[in-house]
TrEMBL record:
Entry keyword Manganese: yes
Keyword Membrane: no
Keyword annotations of the record: Glycosidase, Hydrolase, Kinase, Lyase, Manganese, Metal-binding, Transferase
Top-level division of the source organism's lineage: Eukaryota
Gene Ontology BP terms: nucleoside phosphate metabolic process
Gene: LOC114451368
GO molecular function: hydrolase activity, acting on glycosyl bonds; kinase activity; metal ion binding; pseudouridylate synthase activity
Cellular component GO terms held in the UniProt record: cytoplasm
Name this protein carries in UniProt: Pseudouridine-metabolizing bifunctional protein C1861.05 isoform X2
Range within the parent protein: 1 to 331 of 698
Length: 331
C-alpha cells in the first residue's frame, strides 16, 4: 500500500514536473540586450519604451528619429533605454541601432498587443509592441518604469462596441508605472478613467494639479485621483505599489508642456473630423488608432506630429528622472 502510494505520488510529481518543464516560461523567447541586463544587474535605472509608436504611430523617418532622440534623452538623464519589440518571434527588451532602424523602416510590422503575442511568436513574425505587450516584457525583465506617448483607452461609443484597449486591463494586472501624456480625445476619457478605477489602477497627474491631460492638451475636463509634484514623489508612489505586492500598475499622466499645447484646439477639431471619417469608412478594431493618428496629422499639416514628438521627449525626461529617483530609493 505504502509502495503504491509512493508510486502514485511519483507519477503525480512527474506529471507536474513534465508539465512545468514543457510549458514553463521560456527565457529564450525574451532577449534582454546586454546594455539593459548590465544596468539591471548593477541596480541602475532603466526605462522601457514601446514600439507601436515606431511601427504604427509615426511615419518614417520621424519614427526613427524620435525613437533615437528618446533613447538619447533617457541616456542623458542617467538611465538605460530598453525599447521593446518583437523580432522574428522573440521579444526583445532593448534594441541595437540596426534593429531599431529595421523596425522603423519596415512596412509589414505587426501591431502586437497581449492577445497578439502568442500568434506572432509562434509564426516567428516581427512587430511593434503596444503598451500592453511592452508592459508584459518590461515586467518580465524587471523594469518598473515605462515611458510612452499616450495609452489606449475606452473608445467613443465603447459602451456599445466594447472597444476598450487591452492597455487598460494590462494596467490592472501588471505592476509597472506607465508614464504618458494621458489619453487622446479620440477616446472617451471619462469612461477610460472609470475603467482604470475599476481595474485598481492608481492614476496620478505629474504636476501641481490633478487635471488629467488629453495628450495634445494639458487638460481634458477630467481629473486624476491624485497628483505627484516631482520625481521623488512619483518614485515613492511606485515604490509603495511594488512594496504592497499589488499586481496592478500606476498611470502617471504628464501634461504636454504649455509651449507645445498651443495647437491643441486645431488638433481637437481635426480629431473630431477623423473620428467621424473612421466611423463612416467602417474602420474598426486595431486599425482605428493608427488611422486617426495619420488623418489628424494630415489635417493639421503635421502640427499634431510635432506636438506628439515634443510630448514624448518630455515624457522621456520625466520618466527617466522617476526611474533615477526610484533606484535611489532602493540603495
Ligand atoms: N495612442 C497614441 N499613439 C499610439 C498608440 C496609442 O497616441 O501609438 C498605440 C500604443 O502602442 C497603444 C496602442 O498601446 O496604440 C493602443 O491600441 P488599441 O487602441 O488598439 O489598444
Ligand atoms: Mn481596440
Amino acid at each position: 500500500m505504502r509502495i503504491l502510494k509512493r508510486v502514485s505520488a511519483l507519477v503525480l510529481r512527474r506529471g507536474v514536473t513534465t508539465y512545468q518543464n514543457s510549458w514553463s516560461i521560456k527565457d529564450c523567447l525574451f532577449r534582454v540586450h546586454p546594455s539593459v541586463s548590465q544596468a539591471l544587474a548593477e541596480n541602475k535605472p532603466v526605462v522601457a519604451l514601446e514600439s507601436t509608436i515606431i511601427t504604427h504611430g509615426m511615419p518614417y523617418p520621424h519614427n526613427l528619429n524620435t525613437a533615437k532622440e528618446v533613447e538619447a534623452i533617457v541616456r542623458a538623464e542617467g538611465a538605460a533605454p530598453a525599447t521593446v519589440a518583437v523580432i522574428e518571434g522573440e521579444v526583445h527588451v532593448g534594441l541595437s541601432s540596426d534593429e531599431l532602424e529595421q523596425l522603423a523602416r519596415s512596412t509589414n510590422s505587426q501591431k502586437v498587443s497581449r492577445r497578439d503575442l502568442p500568434f506572432i511568436i509562434s509564426k516567428g513574425l516581427s512587430g511593434g509592441t503596444t503598451v500592453s505587450a511592452t508592459m508584459i516584457a518590461a515586467h518580465r525583465a524587471g523594469i518598473p518604469v515605462f515611458v510612452t506617448g499616450g495609452i489606449g483607452g475606452v473608445h467613443r461609443d465603447g459602451e456599445n462596441s466594447l472597444d476598450i484597449s487591452a492597455d487598460l486591463t494590462e494596467l490592472g494586472r501588471t505592476p509597472i508605472a506607465v508614464v504618458s501624456a494621458g489619453v487622446k480625445s479620440i477616446l472617451d476619457i471619462g469612461r477610460t478613467l472609470e475603467y482604470l478605477e475599476t481595474q485598481g489602477v492608481c492614476v496620478a497627474t505629474y504636476g501641481a494639479s490633478k487635471h488629467f491631460p488629453a495628450f495634445f492638451s494639458p487638460q481634458s475636463g477630467f481629473n486624476s485621483a491624485y497628483n505627484v509634484c516631482n520625481p521623488e514623489e512619483a518614485a515613492k508612489l511606485l515604490e509603495s505599489t511594488l512594496s504592497l505586492g499589488l499586481q496592478s500598475g500606476v498611470l502617471l499622466a504628464v501634461p504636454i508642456p504649455e509651449e507645445h499645447a498651443a495647437a491643441g484646439q486645431q488638433i481637437e477639431e481635426a480629431i473630431q473630423a477623423a473620428v467621424t471619417e473612421a466611423s463612416v469608412k467602417g474602420i474598426t478594431g486595431r486599425d482605428v488608432t493608427p488611422f486617426i493618428l495619420q488623418k489628424v496629422n494630415e489635417l493639421t499639416q503635421g502640427k499634431s506630429l510635432q506636438a506628439n514628438i515634443a510630448l514624448i521627449h518630455n515624457n522621456a525626461r520625466v520618466g527617466s528622472q522617476i526611474a533615477c529617483a526610484l533606484s535611489k530609493l532602493k540603495t
